[in-house]
Hints:
Elements: E1 2-15, E2 18-31, E3 35-39, H1 46-53, E4 61-66, E5 80-83, H2 96-106, H3 111-124, H4 140-152, E6 158-162, H5 170-187, E7 190-194, H6 198-204, E8 207-212, E9 215-221, H7 222-228, E10 232-238, H8 244-253, E11 258-260, E12 265-270, H9 276-285, E13 290-295, H10 300-311
Parallel strand pairs: 3-7, 3-8, 5-6, 6-7
Antiparallel strand pairs: 1-2, 1-4, 8-9, 10-12, 10-13, 11-12
Amino acid sequence: MTALIVEELGKDYRTRRGPVRALAGVSFRVEEGEVVGLLGANGAGKTTAIKILCGLLRPTSGRATVFGVSPSRPEVARRVAALLEGSRNVYWRLSVEENLRFFAGLQGVPPREARRRTGELVALFGLEDKRRTTANLLSQGMKQKLALACALVKGTPLLLLDEPTLGLDVETSHELRGFIRELARAHGKTVLLSSHDMGVVEDTCARVVILSRGRVVADDLVPNLLSLFRTQAYRVSLRDGLPERARATLAARLPTLRALEAERALEVELPPEQDVYALMDALREAGVAVDGVSRAEPDLEDVFLRIVQGER
């Protein structure tokens, strides 16, 4: 079944200076069991889209459905859990354990099952020593962990996660990535994940939807996007740095060459008619001592920047 359908979604906000368009005809689909990344710069419309999908906002135009039902319908709440704006999702006067059991109870989770899920999530996020501590006394990172755990404790088939790793330490962030992958693989959960951390998105999402100025500018599998921007880019480590006399010679033969003085390295993107042997010949003839050459493969951050900058 298709978990999410978004068709020509538009959203305008009223301000003193007139209407501001946050979404301008956004369309995409998410199938059940998919983990999809929703990417975009600040102000691209990511959070607005997620708030519409969980029923917190009404669109100005277009439509969205969650498992075939409009997000504005009350029954959608039983199928969707959302993490929005980080630690503001929890009750600060309740303890860690009380927050988890409260949100499980809202979803109708039986008490015994709620206790089991609470114990699992407390252990997963390293909150054992804080389980009876009120949320307002937690560090920012701990609050973020608790907010994410409260979204997961409901056991809904769809998770909408807006910046889920914000404030998490490196170890917990990596554990969370594995947990998100496992949710989809072993439990059939559907996840729409928005993050500025491209490492998180690349590790967890099979597909990404990129927004720019309220519009979809890319929607494809991550490997397809990476291959689209794969080039003959190389990084060359230099034994003695780049001699001044060689700089002009290399610049004439390799116009895309970029010197990284502090790292004693060069970066260059070769045209299709040249290969790595042409690069090595140019370096040898210029009298440059080479320590090593490696292929510079694009990552999701490179792809994102090229697509967004190209659209602008």
